[in-house]
């Protein structure tokens, strides 16, 4: 049985045929749509490397069946920059040394974008650490990651204020 | 993962019909089910995707002033609903203390009730497990069992129910609404999960095809909102299942407790309502000595199922602390580290 789903990935609407309902969103992105920025770490929802936004909310794409995403809007790491202009979270990860090997970084950045949009950080590093606990970094770049998320949150709220004025 | 058929029903009736067929499993958030399928722990022949069903995603006021939570409401949405969190702050705190931000965005209310134990022998398909394969034995009995049950267990199974959410729900008398092939029914959450006895594979009262459609909390339970806490001891500060958890609520009038609510998590095969502890508190002053007596009563029936006698002591102490924190008043806003017994507490040096 071939299933067909309609979804939007990084702003582009597409129809995707699924020959097997077992395909996860992670495998759909990497193997079928060739968006390999989203990483497969544990494939069991424990490490966060596969984090993407679905309808604006961060989720583990390894635990999401693609077949259930009819009508969904998916945002991956490939879709966050505007051309050559980095997303504020991407820029903050570079400025704050928020990574070493980089494997977990796309998931960290997508998780941070989701966390900031949830709007409850208030510049509190403890809330950042708690909110980012679903993303493991085996290099141990947590101090840089925490600083990056705090800086990006500040930048983004400043930008939002200016836009409102 | 074993191959399966995928169906996406449009109505609850269609879902129940598809769910009644042998080998069917309902898919909602998928955060536990897909993990189990990837590990070969469960192998459904048919996935009935209920995520697109209408009318199951709302948080509504009921006519009696209580709250009705649709089964597909996501954990994060319920915890962050300001009206709900104001009425049931310990429920919100429990939700926010569970899993990770990503998982809370996917996991659902109905799925949380039906999540499976995290006993490692249940997950390891090479081990004997009466829950996974009835009659095969229980390797946990002689294995690494320090995290397993001290209440309600049987010789067949010593696994615990891992939910945070269910602990304050059962403390505050939640009711589960169920749609089935022939009728709708409802049952108190306290009666929803079964103790293992001789049949640990039967974890709830659900019959084939029955689907959780909502969880309800009564208006009377809102009276505890000013004095309630959920506390959770974990092996790390965040993103870990409980070793022991406790939900405590009090109504205090003129310096005396008129009513108390108490439930424990990760100590038993089901979320554990501790009525013996509650009953002792009525009429008492909200003081440590009374909470200690309540904790003794709550654990009176406990016995270790392995290397876990420490959990009994830990549960007693956590109950005392949860009641002390509840008596001190529900924190607003919730602490940065939800349910942490250690966070920002002047009196906490250790459990």
From TrEMBL, chain A:
Reading the lineage from the top rank, the first entry is Bacteria
Which keywords does this Swiss-Prot/TrEMBL entry list? 2Fe-2S, Iron, Iron-sulfur, Metal-binding, Oxidoreductase
The GO terms describing molecular function are: 2 iron, 2 sulfur cluster binding; metal ion binding; oxidoreductase activity, acting on the aldehyde or oxo group of donors
Iron-sulfur: present as a keyword of the record? yes
User: Residue ranges of the 2Fe-2S ferredoxin-type domain?
Assistant: 3-80
Coiled coil segments of this chain: none
Q: Which Pfam families match?
A: Fer2 (PF00111), Fer2_2 (PF01799)
Query: Which InterPro entries does the UniProt entry name for this protein?
Result: 2Fe-2S-bd (IPR002888), 2Fe-2S-bd_dom_sf (IPR036884), 2Fe-2S_ferredoxin-like_sf (IPR036010), 2Fe-2S_ferredoxin-type (IPR001041), 2Fe2S_fd_BS (IPR006058), Aldehyde_Oxdr_Iron-Sulfur (IPR052914), Beta-grasp_dom_sf (IPR012675)
Q: Which PANTHER family match?
A: OXIDOREDUCTASE WITH IRON-SULFUR SUBUNIT, OXIDOREDUCTASE, IRON-SULPHUR BINDING SUBUNIT-RELATED-RELATED
Name of the featured protein: (2Fe-2S)-binding protein
Organism, by scientific name, is Pararhizobium mangrovi
From TrEMBL, chain B:
PANTHER family according to UniProt: XANTHINE DEHYDROGENASE FAD-BINDING SUBUNIT XDHB-RELATED (PTHR42659:SF9), XANTHINE DEHYDROGENASE SUBUNIT C-RELATED (PTHR42659)
Q: Which domain of life is it from?
A: Bacteria
Q: SMART domains, alphabetically?
A: CO_deh_flav_C
Listed name of the protein: Xanthine dehydrogenase family protein subunit M
User: InterPro entries of this UniProt entry?
Assistant: CO_DH_flav_C, CO_DH_flav_C_dom_sf, Diverse_Substr_Oxidored, FAD-bd_PCMH, FAD-bd_PCMH-like_sf, FAD-bd_PCMH_sub1, FAD-bd_PCMH_sub2, Mopterin_DH_FAD-bd
Q: Where is the FAD-binding PCMH-type domain?
A: 1-222
Q: Does the keyword Transit peptide apply?
A: no
One GO molecular function term of this record is: oxidoreductase activity
Q: Which UniProt keywords apply?
A: FAD, Flavoprotein
Q: Please tell me whether the keyword Flavoprotein is annotated for this protein.
A: yes
Q: Which Pfam families match?
A: CO_deh_flav_C (PF03450), FAD_binding_5 (PF00941)
